[in-house]
Every structure is written in structure tokens, then in C-alpha cells.
């Protein structure tokens, strides 16, 4: 049997398993164009109300911190004004490509209908399909850690061009576990999946995330995929295909 130098795999999505173009040219515009209507139609939904509360708290934190002009979401507004304020905040966050838990939670809910209708079909690199199959055969669990909400991750891997990949995934983590650029998040994930950090390989396109995972003791691979942002010099091992994860 193939002997690999890791016992578990932790995967980023955007720029790693999935082309950045799918996220920026398909998913984000889909959510942006539909958010106003989605909020109008679902304003009474308790989960949407919870997202609005999270957005409101995030807006207050932003205004008090690094973003004094962050659009605010009033507590006492009528429905139309509330939706208008929330949409202004969401569009502002999306313009800045914020990865806040509040924004990601709401985006996931908007994408749900698109996947169900077949309008959204997730793009995943062919080498990822193959790698997930091989890891399953080798009984190496593969987990996802993305800024996208866990619900959004399950939708994406449940509706790919190759069908439902969720049976090949062992679990999902998002920013509710902690920020992706914080080493403690990787320590917490290692603990939650019952692995020593050094037995986990984390694959990401983001150098700051790789540095945080390495600080936590994980092995790292930096994904170089078409369209990814260029990176400064670094000493992490890179890969252009997941095939490389079977050659160590
Ligand atoms: C299923 S999540 C869609 C992508 C997304 O919203 C995102 O922010 C991706 O961030 P990542 O941490 O995977 O680079
Ligand atoms: Mg990424």
C-alpha cells in the first residue's frame, strides 16, 4: 500500500480545489444580484434574521475599527429600509472581498436555490476528483477549511460537474472555528479531527494561511492554479496538481 507522509488532508477551496473564476465570476455575482430579493422574501426566516444580526454586529465592529465608513444596519427600520441598508452593507463587503462569517453565511443561503435548480454547478479541478477517490481508498480522511460557510461548502461539493463529492469528504470547517490566518485555528482543527498537526497536510493558495498552518505544525502545500494571485517569495512547497500529494 502507498505510504504517504501524512494521515489527513485539509483543503482550502477557492484557488485550491476550485478555480477562482468559478468563485468570482459565477458564485459571487449570483449572490450579489439576488441578495435584495432574497432578503425581501426571507426577512421573517429566523436564520436570515440571525444573519442580519451578525451583519449588524460586524458593521458596528468595522465602523469602530478599520472601516469607519462601513454601511450600518439599523435595528428599528421598516422592512424596505432594513433590506436597503443590509444590501448596501453586503455589496460593500463584497466589493472589498471580505471573508466575514456574517457575509459568508448569507451568501451560502442565496446559493442554495441556484444549486437546487441546476443553475449553479460547481467547478472542481479534475485532479481533485482523483485525489479524493485515492484518499478514500487509502483511508486518509480529507477535510475542507474555507472562508465559505460550512453550508456553502456542502452545497459546492454536493453539486459538482462530477456529481456529489460529499461521500469522499470527512468533514468541513469554516471561520466559526477561527480565522484562516490564525495558527490557533489549525491547532483547533487538528484537535477536532484527532490528529497531530504534523500528520496533517494543509493545501491552500493563500500564503498567509499556509504560514499560519505551518506555525501550528502542519505540513503545507501552496497551490499554484491558473488565475491565482501571484505570491511573494516563500519557502513552502508548491503544487500545480493534487497528483503531487501522492509523490512525496
Ligand atoms: C463554498 S465557499 C465559496 C467560496 C467563498 O465564498 C470563499 O470565500 C472562498 O474562500 P477560501 O477560504 O476557500 O479561499
Ligand atoms: Mg483560497
Automatic annotation (TrEMBL):
Q: What is this protein called?
A: Enolase-phosphatase E1
**EC number(s) in its UniProt entry?**
3.1.3.77
Does this UniProt record's set of keywords contain Cell wall biogenesis/degradation?
A: no
The family this protein is said to belong to: Belongs to the HAD-like hydrolase superfamily. MasA/MtnC family.
Cofactor(s) for this UniProt protein: Mg(2+)
What is catalyzed by this enzyme? 5-methylsulfanyl-2,3-dioxopentyl phosphate + H2O = 1,2-dihydroxy-5-(methylsulfanyl)pent-1-en-3-one + phosphate
Its subunit composition reads:
Monomer.
Please give one Gene Ontology molecular function term for this protein.
Answer: 2-hydroxy-3-keto-5-methylthiopentenyl-1-phosphate phosphatase activity
Cofactor stoichiometry and binding remark: Binds 1 Mg(2+) ion per subunit.
Q: Which NCBIfam families match?
A: enolase-ppase (TIGR01691)
Q: Which domain of life is it from?
A: Bacteria
What is this protein's function per UniProt? Bifunctional enzyme that catalyzes the enolization of 2,3-diketo-5-methylthiopentyl-1-phosphate (DK-MTP-1-P) into the intermediate 2-hydroxy-3-keto-5-methylthiopentenyl-1-phosphate (HK-MTPenyl-1-P), which is then dephosphorylated to form the acireductone 1,2-dihydroxy-3-keto-5-methylthiopentene (DHK-MTPene).
Pfam families recorded? Hydrolase (PF00702)
Pathway listed for it is:
Amino-acid biosynthesis; L-methionine biosynthesis via salvage pathway; L-methionine from S-methyl-5-thio-alpha-D-ribose 1-phosphate: step 4/6; Amino-acid biosynthesis; L-methionine biosynthesis via salvage pathway; L-methionine from S-methyl-5-thio-alpha-D-ribose 1-phosphate: step 3/6
Any one of the GO BP annotations: L-methionine salvage from methylthioadenosine
For this UniProt record, the keywords arranged alphabetically read as follows: Amino-acid biosynthesis, Hydrolase, Magnesium, Metal-binding, Methionine biosynthesis
Judged by the first EC level, this protein's enzyme class is hydrolase
Amino acid at each position: 500500500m502507498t505510504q504517504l507522509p501524512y494521515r489527513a488532508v485539509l483543503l482550502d477551496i477557492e484557488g485550491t480545489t476550485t478555480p477562482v473564476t468559478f468563485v468570482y465570476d459565477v458564485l459571487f455575482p449570483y449572490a450579489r444580484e439576488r441578495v435584495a430579493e432574497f432578503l425581501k422574501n426571507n426577512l421573517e426566516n429566523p436564520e436570515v434574521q440571525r444573519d442580519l444580526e451578525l451583519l449588524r454586529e460586524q458593521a458596528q465592529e468595522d465602523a469602530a475599527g478599520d472601516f469607519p465608513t462601513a454601511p450600518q444596519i439599523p435595528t428599528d427600520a421598516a422592512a424596505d429600509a432594513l433590506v436597503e441598508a443590509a444590501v448596501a452593507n453586503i455589496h460593500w463587503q463584497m466589493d472589498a472581498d471580505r471573508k466575514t462569517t456574517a457575509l459568508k453565511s448569507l451568501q451560502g443561503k442565496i446559493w442554495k436555490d441556484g444549486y437546487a435548480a441546476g443553475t449553479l454547478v460547481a467547478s472542481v479541478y479534475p485532479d481533485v476528483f482523483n485525489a479524493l477517490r485515492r484518499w478514500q481508498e487509502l483511508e486518509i480522511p480529507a477535510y475542507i477549511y474555507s472562508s465559505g460557510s460550512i453550508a456553502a461548502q456542502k452545497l459546492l461539493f454536493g453539486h459538482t460537474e462530477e456529481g456529489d463529492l460529499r461521500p469522499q469528504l470527512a468533514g468541513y470547517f469554516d471561520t466559526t472555528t477561527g480565522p484562516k490566518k490564525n495558527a490557533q485555528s489549525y491547532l483547533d482543527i487538528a484537535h477536532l479531527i484527532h490528529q497531530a498537526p504534523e500528520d496533517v497536510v494543509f493545501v491552500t493558495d493563500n500564503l498567509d494561511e499556509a504560514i499560519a498552518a505551518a506555525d501550528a505544525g502542519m505540513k503545507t502545500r501552496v497551490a499554484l492554479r491558473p488565475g491565482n494571485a501571484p505570491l511573494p517569495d516563500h519557502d513552502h512547497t508548491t503544487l500545480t496538481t493534487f497528483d503531487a500529494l501522492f509523490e512525496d
